[in-house]
Write a structure and sequence with these properties.
It is built from seven helices and no strands. It is an all-alpha fold. Helix 2 packs antiparallel against helix 3 and helix 3 packs antiparallel against helix 5. Helices cover about 70% and strands about 0% of the residues. The chain is globular. It starts with a helix and ends with a helix.
């Protein structure tokens, strides 16, 4: 029991650290903030497909990333909450409404795989544009910001995320210790 808790915390910490590093990389290239956001770290939002530890890992990683990249407080709070909601719904899609802590259940269909990037995309399209307009006083319309944020999220979550999902899928038992 203790080893499972340690594994969960370790996985969450590694995912949070990866999220921060990938966000800082995208930020250094001018891709991580404002209306058009292609955060490489958002590809990690498919990780709840493999492990529930990704949920707190993504949330904490997003909080740290937004803080380090100089986001305003409301952006940090609501952007991180959008990531949290996306991660929880991704987990529920991948694993159904089974026990959150049941490590024995892992059955993902191809349909579930392809649906996994949708929750973080939708959560960010709904949450981020109004925050950008309110917090940063950016000029433009809500539909325009929904479009630009949506494009960035599709690139990050769907394109990069699905590449990551299929790359990890054949190694999932080893990487995520699903059978321990």
């Amino acid at each position: 029991m203790r080893n499972k808790k340690v594994l969960f915390i370790t996985q969450a910490a590694v995912i949070a650290a990866l999220y921060v590093v990938l966000t800082l990389l995208a930020n250094s290239l001018g891709l991580a903030n404002y209306a058009i956001q292609v955060r490489f770290s958002e590809a990690l939002t498919i990780l709840p497909y493999f492990t529930p530890a990704a949920i707190p890992g993504l949330f904490i990683g997003c909080i740290i990333s937004n803080t380090l990249t100089g986001c305003m407080l409301l952006d940090t709070i609501f952007g991180s909450l959008a990531t949290l909601v996306g991660a929880v719904v991704t987990y529920l899609i991948a694993h159904g409404f089974r026990s959150y802590t049941n490590p024995d259940y892992y059955k993902g269909s191809n349909i579930r795989k392809w649906l996994c990037p949708i929750p973080p995309i939708v959560a960010n399209i709904i949450v981020v544009p109004p925050v950008l307009m309110y917090v940063y006083h950016l000029e433009g319309t809500l539909p325009l910001f929904m479009l630009t944020v949506g494009i960035g999220e599709v690139i990050s979550c769907f394109v990069l995320g699905m590449i990551l999902l299929f790359a990890l899928d054949s190694r999932k038992e080893t990487i995520f210790r699903l059978n321990s």
